[in-house]
Amino acid sequence: PMISELYPEPTPVPAKKQASDAGKWTIGLNASGGLLASNNSAYTDSLYQKSNMIGMLDEAQSNADDDYYHVPTAQINYNHPYYNYESSYTITEHLSKHRLPIRFGLSLHYQFHPRLAFMSGISYTRLYSEFSFPLYGNISYSQRLHYIGVPLGVAWQLWAANRFSVYLAGGAMVEKCVSVSIDGDYTGQKPWQWSVNGAVGAEYAFTSLLGAYLEPSLGYYFSDGTQLEHYYKEHPLAPSIEFGLRMHFGR
């Protein structure tokens, strides 16, 4: 017999598809929060105040003993459910405390290259602030802003070994304010919020389908063009940290 018949060449075994191969989809659930401390600061800008504050300030004015504490007449905008105080008097000085943002989201990644992935999804963000007037300790109110957003970006895998992977990510997000609540009342100002961000993340895979990740990021939030005061107006360059679970398909 011929040598080729005695020792046939082995049948090639197809290479196992790697976890980082293109064509993989990833769905994730995540939560994130800010990293800067909430802020207290004084302003002299005009504010949209709750309408029943007119009575409070008028009463305070009638009890004032000094012209220094005089409350200027309000310039009322009847097209808006809140009154706009515009004055340089000290009564317009107020303290604002902006709590750290809270965000929850659903993410979607598509691996179009062994190291590159396209990112999108949907998110919900809540911004909470408290305001008070130092001259009148009993006058204060809280503000809640609720946003729905859509992020777009890309992620680049830097390193992967065993069950760990490290990556860089960057992109932009557009958010629409869907609700503005001031002490339970709602205003008509519901602006768009644009931002850009960069992040570095690490993921640990429990199985080939499920992993957990941690992702510190730094975002820049552009002005929304309104008179609303909130955390991103106070901290346009804001760090945050995101964490969550991811499910991988197509492996």
Give an overview in words.
This protein has 251 residues and is mostly beta strands. It contains 3 helices and 13 strands; from the N terminus they run αβββαβββββββββαβ. An 8-stranded antiparallel β-barrel has the order 1-6-7-8-9-11-12-13. It has a two-stranded antiparallel ribbon with strand order 3-4. The longest helix is centred in the N-terminal third of the chain and has 10 residues, at 53-62. The two termini are 44 Å apart.
Beta-strand content bin: over 45%
Structural class estimated from helices and strands: mainly beta
Fraction in helix: under 10%
Q: How are strands sequenced across the largest beta sheet?
A: 1-6-7-8-9-11-12-13
Order of H and E elements: HEEEHEEEEEEEEEHE
Number of helices: 3
Outline type: elongated
Characterize the main sheet: 8 strands, antiparallel, barrel
Would you tell me the overall average pLDDT? 79
Contiguous low-pLDDT stretches (5 residues minimum) are 48-58, 60-91
Number of strands: 13
Tell me the distance between the termini: 44 Å
Rounded to an integer, what's the Rg over CA atoms? Answer: 27 Å
Show the helix and strand layout.
Blueprint: H1 3-6, E1 24-34, E2 39-43, E3 47-49, H2 53-62, E4 83-85, E5 94-98, E6 102-111, E7 116-133, E8 136-161, E9 164-182, E10 185-186, E11 192-205, E12 210-221, H3 231-234, E13 237-249
Antiparallel strand pairs: 1-6, 1-13, 2-5, 3-4, 5-7, 6-7, 7-8, 8-9, 9-10, 9-11, 11-12, 12-13
